[in-house]
Amino acid sequence: MNHALSTRALGASDIVGFRSLLALFGSAFDDRETYLSAQPDDNYLRRLLASDTFIAVAAFDGATLIGGIAAYILPKFEQARSELYIYDLAVDAQYRRRGVATALIAELRKIAVDRGVYGIYVQADYGDDAAIALYAKHGTREDVMHFDIIPAP
Q1: Does some domain include residue 94?
Q2: What radius of gyration do the chain's Cα atoms show?
Q3: Is 30 helix (H, G, I), strand (E, B) or coil?
Q4: N or C terminus of the chain: which is more exposed, having fewer CB within 10 Å?
Q5: What are the helix (H) ranges across the chain?
């Protein structure tokens, strides 16, 4: 990296940056259709980025967005506490294995403390060895099953 790595949460005024993050996710996950074809309008994104239940953290090399996390805060019902779910994490291919993902997680952990989050969790797909190794450095592995349930009409 030519510049200093920096990370920060994206706020309601960071629409352009968030759209860049969506493009990065589409590229990193080889799923441009999902991330680029039907993006919400600016008002939707402003509300999302300003909400208490969504966090987007971006990593920059100078002014260039090189990685990011999208996460949701889930208020719990059994106790007055919240958990945080990392929904997506990606780093531009040319910046991988340079500590960017670790810096993103560190920033997210700070935000979680500030927001009173009890725990953070993330899932990784079998065979995604890089993601599994990253998350194993930061937490305890649990083997669980994941099911997608389609809403009834």
Answers
A1: yes
A2: 16
A3: coil
A4: C
A5: 15-28, 32-36, 42-50, 100-114, 129-138
The SS3 call for residue 61 is: strand
Question: Which domain CATH number covers 50?
Answer: 3.40.630.30
Q: Residue 14 falls within a domain, yes or no?
A: yes
| Global confidence as pTM | 0.86
CA distance 86 to 146: 15
Kindly give the confidence (pLDDT) of every residue in the chain, 153 residues in length, as a single tens digit, with 9 standing for 90 and above.
Answer: 456 899 999 999 999 999 999 999 999 999 999 999 999 999 999 999 999 999 999 999 999 999 999 999 999 999 999 999 999 999 999 999 999 999 999 999 999 999 999 999 888 777 777 777 677 777 777 777 777 777 888
Task: Answer yes or no: is 149 within a domain.
Answer: no
Number of domains comprising the chain: 1
DSSP class per residue in 109-149: HHHHHHTTEEEEEE---TT-HHHHHHHHHHS----------
Residues 6+ apart with CB under 8 A from 133: none
Nearest residue to 91 (alpha-carbon basis) of 128, 131, 120: 131
Does any domain span residue 117? yes
